[in-house]
Amino acid sequence: MDDLDKKILGELQKDARVPFRKISELHGISIGTVHNRLKKLKEDGILKGFVPILDNGKLGFTIVALVYIKVDGGHLPSIKGELEKFPEVNVIFQTSGIYDLVLIARFQNMIDFSAFNNKISKINNMKAEVNIALDVLKDEYFLKL
Fold first, then answer.
1. By the 8 A CB rule, do 10 and 145 touch?
2. The whole model's pTM is what?
3. Between 75 and which of 14, 55, 108, 125 could a Cys-Cys bridge form, CB atoms 3.0 to 4.6 Å apart?
4. 77-124 pLDDT, tens per residue?
């Protein structure tokens, strides 16, 4: 990936619907170059897709839980597999430090949160510490390229 690829991706991060013509005009390249570069970035797995960025709060998902998990020895693959099945879980990080996994989960109400909390507390071979975010201070999806 070179500087031109980064410039093209930068434009798409601002607006994924920007026409290839506009990108080509902004950077003095042909539309075909934009197309070919994006095709290569897709093939290389750098560009994973074009998706809308949703406002979770406006959709009613106002409760954000951070879940810190310690897994008993040797059970990490099976625990990850179980946690991936929860539709409320948006992100799973495998981490260094005292926790093996950190999850981000979103809920519309405390009833849903409580049901989730009860389900994960019943998973064997792990211990979970669940915190609710009081405020979201930064939530961005853009990378500085």
1. yes
2. 0.81
3. 125
4. 999 999 999 999 999 999 999 999 999 999 999 999 999 999 999 999
For 110-145, b where at least 16 C-beta lie within 10 A, e where not — what string?
A: eeebeebbeebeebeebebebeeeeeeeeeeeeeee
Q: Which whole number is the average pLDDT over 9-16?
A: 92
What distances in angstroms separate CA 48 from CA 41, 51, 83, 88, 94, one per listed residue? 9, 9, 23, 22, 21
Sorted by where each begins, the domain ranges of the chain are 3-43, 63-132
The two structure tokens encoding residue 84: 């991936």
To which residue do tokens 């074009």 refer? Answer: 50
| Number of alpha carbons in the 13 Å side-chain half-sphere of residue 57 | 4
**Single-letter residue type at 110:** M
- Give the Cα-Cα-Cα angle 74, 78, 79 (nearest 5 degrees): 90
CATH topology of domain 63-132: Alpha-Beta Plaits (3.30.70)
Looking at the domain that runs over 3-43, which CATH code has it been given? 1.10.10.10
CA distance 47 to 42: 5
